[in-house]
Structure formats: structure tokens, C-alpha cells
Design goal:
CATH architecture of the largest domain: Orthogonal Bundle
Cofactor: FAD; heme b
Structural class: alpha/beta
Family: Belongs to the globin family. Two-domain flavohemoproteins subfamily.
Order of helices and strands: HHHHHHHEEEEEHEEHEHEEHEHE
Number of strands: 12
CATH superfamily of the largest domain: Globins
Number of domains: 3
Strand content: 15-25%
Mean pLDDT: 92
Number of helices: 12
CATH topology of the largest domain: Globin-like
CATH class of the largest domain: Mainly Alpha
InterPro entries: FAD-bd_FR_type, FNR_nucleotide-bd, Globin, Globin-like_sf, Globin/Proto, Hmp, OxRdtase_FAD/NAD-bd, Riboflavin_synthase-like_b-brl
Protein name: Flavohemoprotein
Distance between the termini: 30 Å
EC number: 1.14.12.17
């Protein structure tokens, strides 16, 4: 890898404040420009996130972080790993990086105009080439380990409604081949053609069962059609994929995984559909008859949106080392305290300290961004080391 010169590093770092101010404008222009010149890439990028501007915002944060840490790339290690797994799940290829680089540099120049000179643009070209080389290398390693390349057809052999919003799809390779191993907490990309926008769209869904060698299971939350942007793929899955249907699936990826070799307590904390990786983790621990103390803590709106409740109760009944705590934010008349849920209101660690603040515990968090921020802040305030907290956020947001 060709190292940047001291002058190039200084120029890129000096642009960080400008990117903090104008980053979203640049990235919005970048995506618009790239899709005009390369419309085929609409099949790769989440167009709903383009409509909501969440993807340009996420990219702006990433570009700013890269500029601010250009002289200390080690600080970006976890972010690089996260991005590489996302890219590998979407089948991003090395030949697509020059397209992104060309349009990103052009967007910087066109938005900032005379505020950025040619030597600074040259520094950014070198910086982008360096980042591309890092990501391509990381993704090459992931592809080499992947169970298959690209997207593979799977047949839905079972479909099960888990709540008013979440439906599980059980998948087997349509060619009759073996089902791959994966680590609890990993996800796959599922690709569907969206007629409303005329392109294929990939979406990433966590594998919601323990690795079993027989099937893969994803549990999809229906995003309401009145939402803006609508849940294109989730609604297609709910309304258009029945038993016998075929879906295109990528190989499992993701770094948010269970440390299965440990013997310390495990605290699994989820909100809404963030329960899916926790189900996979708990199912895996139960399948190996783990004796680790496991605390499963879940928050959702009410019993109608509570997925996997009966399954969790059965696990708790069979495994004395597992406890459950369920919060319903807004209960219905038919929700039974002590049976369906344990506490009314939002998740509050102060009410369950005996089940959350466990010595040497590892904490796994997953859910919407506001939920994740609240839980991480609460754990930090309670004195939990950040090194013991692992988090996965759905969508393109970030905790901090």
C-alpha cells in the first residue's frame, strides 16, 4: 500500500471541519451524480435509504471520520471491519471502487468549488485509493471464507408468523445442496426486484435461528406502507413470498457474533425486531447445553408485536440458567403481567439490576438507534466497561 505523504495527510485532515459542515450536501450530490452516470448501481444501494437521506448522512459521517483519523488509521479498525462485512454481503467488487472514487471526488469539487484547490483534491485521490485498497483487501479475505459467491437461490419451505409485524421464512438451497454454517448474530442479504422503482434491491436480515445444518431462517419485520420511505422489500417478502417461493440470498456475513467459547455470563438486550440475533445466540447456547448464566432482556410495544415469546418461555422452562425479562411500552387489555411481560413502560435497568449487572458479563445489544443509545448510556452509567458491550444497529444509523 502506497503511504500518503505528510503534505497529503495534512491537507486531508485540514478538510475535516469542512466535511463536518458540508458532508451531507456532498454525499447527496455524490449519490445523485453516480446514479446518473451508473444507473446499474441502483441495484446495489438501498434506494429507500436514499429517499430518507439516511445513507448520505451515514456516508458523510464515515468520510468525516476517515479525514479526522487519516494520521491514525488504527482508530478506524472496527469501522473498516463493519463496512467490509456489509460490502461483502452486498457482493461489492473491486471494479466498483473506481466508480465511487471518481464520483465522490467530483462531488467534493463541484460542491466546494474554489474552497478546495487541486493539491487538496490530489491528496483526497490518494486518500481514497488508500481506503479502497484497505477495504478491497478486507473484502477479499471475507469472500475467500464465504460459503458461496454472490447470490444463491433458496426455496422457502416454511413460513411462520411470529407477531403482527414479524414473519419468519425458513430457507433451503434450491439446488438441494448443503446448508452452510454461520456464527450466531450474522446476517444475509436477500435480493428482490421492486417494480415501483424498477430495480433489484438487497436487504440484510439477521439469521434468527441457531446453525443447524438443515436450514437458514430470517425473520422479517413488515415496514408499514405509509412510512416514508416505504419498506419495499419487507412488504414484498410478506405479501409476495409464500411456501415454494424462491429468494436470492448472499452468504452469511457480520462481525456482531456470539463469543461461544467463553464461560462468563451473557446478557442479551434487544428492542423490537432487534430480537432476531439474540434468538440465534440464545438458541445456539441452548443447543450446546451451555451452563453460562444467560439473561434475556427484551422490549417491545405490546403483546401483538412481541415475537418469539412462547419460544423464549420454553427455553427458560427447560434451562434453569436462563432468565427472561420483557418490557411492554404500551400494554393492551389482553397482555398478562407476569405471563406475557414482566414490566410496563420502557426498559429500565434500575428495575432489573440483579439481571443486568452481572460480574464479568458480556453484553449484546440490538435495536433501533434511540433504544441503543439509551441502553449503552445506562450500562456505562452503571459502570459496565465499554469493552464488554457489543452492539448491532439496524439501518444506517449509529449509536455515537
Amino acid at each position: 500500500m502506497t503511504a500518503l505523504t505528510a503534505d497529503q495527510i495534512a491537507r486531508v485532515k485540514a478538510t475535516a471541519p469542512v466535511l463536518a459542515e458540508h458532508g451531507v450536501t456532498i454525499t447527496q450530490h455524490f449519490y445523485k451524480r453516480m446514479f446518473i452516470h451508473h444507473p446499474e448501481l441502483k441495484n446495489v444501494f438501498n434506494q429507500a435509504h436514499q429517499q430518507s437521506a439516511s445513507q448520505p448522512q451515514a456516508l458523510a459521517r464515515a468520510v468525516y471520520a476517515y479525514a479526522a483519523n487519516i494520521d491514525n488509521l488504527g482508530a478506524l479498525g472496527s469501522a473498516v471491519t463493519h463496512i467490509a462485512h456489509k460490502h461483502a454481503s452486498l457482493n461489492i467488487r473491486p471494479e466498483q471502487y473506481p466508480i465511487v472514487g471518481e464520483n465522490l471526488l467530483a462531488a467534493i469539487s463541484e460542491v466546494l468549488g474554489d474552497a478546495v484547490d487541486e493539491p487538496t483534491l490530489d491528496a483526497w485521490r490518494a486518500a481514497y485509493a488508500q481506503l479502497a485498497e484497505i477495504l478491497i483487501g478486507a473484502e477479499k479475505a471475507l469472500y475467500a471464507q464465504a460459503a458461496w459467491s454472490g447470490f444463491r437461490p433458496f426455496v422457502v419451505f416454511r413460513r411462520e408468523q411470529e407477531s403482527d409485524e414479524i414473519t419468519s421464512f425458513y430457507l433451503k438451497p434450491s439446488d438441494g445442496g448443503p446448508v452452510c454454517h454461520f456464527e450466531p448474530g450474522q446476517y444475509v442479504s436477500v435480493k428482490r426486484f421492486v417494480k415501483e422503482i424498477g430495480v433489484d434491491q438487497p436487504r440484510q436480515y439477521t439469521l434468527s435461528d441457531a446453525p443447524n445444518g438443515q436450514w437458514l431462517r430470517i425473520s422479517v419485520k413488515r415496514e408499514r406502507v405509509q412510512d416514508m420511505p416505504p419498506g419495499y422489500v419487507s412488504n414484498l417478502m410478506h405479501d409476495g413470498v409464500e411456501v415454494g417461493g424462491i429468494v436470492e440470498v448472499s452468504a452469511p456475513m457480520g462481525e456482531f457474533t456470539l463469543h461461544r467459547s467463553k464461560t462468563t455470563p451473557v446478557v442479551l438486550i434487544s428492542g423490537g425486531v432487534g430480537i432476531t440475533p439474540m434468538v440465534s445466540m440464545l438458541a445456539s447456547l441452548a443447543a450446546q447445553n451451555s451452563t453460562r448464566r444467560i439473561s434475556f432482556i427484551h422490549a417491545c410495544r405490546n403483546g401483538r408485536t412481541h415475537a418469539f415469546g412462547r419460544w423464549l418461555d420454553a427455553i427458560v422452562a427447560k434451562h434453569p440458567n436462563v432468565s427472561r425479562t420483557v418490557f411492554y411500552e404500551k400494554t393492551h387489555a389482553d397482555d398478562r403481567l407476569g405471563t406475557d411481560f414482566d414490566f410496563a413502560g420502557r426498559l429500565d435497568f434500575a428495575r432489573i439490576a440483579d439481571k443486568t449487572l452481572l460480574p464479568d458479563a458480556d453484553y449484546y445489544l440490538c435495536g433501533p438507534v434511540p433504544f441503543m443509545r439509551a441502553q449503552q448510556d445506562a450500562l456505562m452509567a452503571a459502570g459496565v466497561s465499554k469493552a464488554r458491550v457489543r452492539a448491532e444497529i439496524y439501518g444506517s444509523g449509529e449509536i455515537a
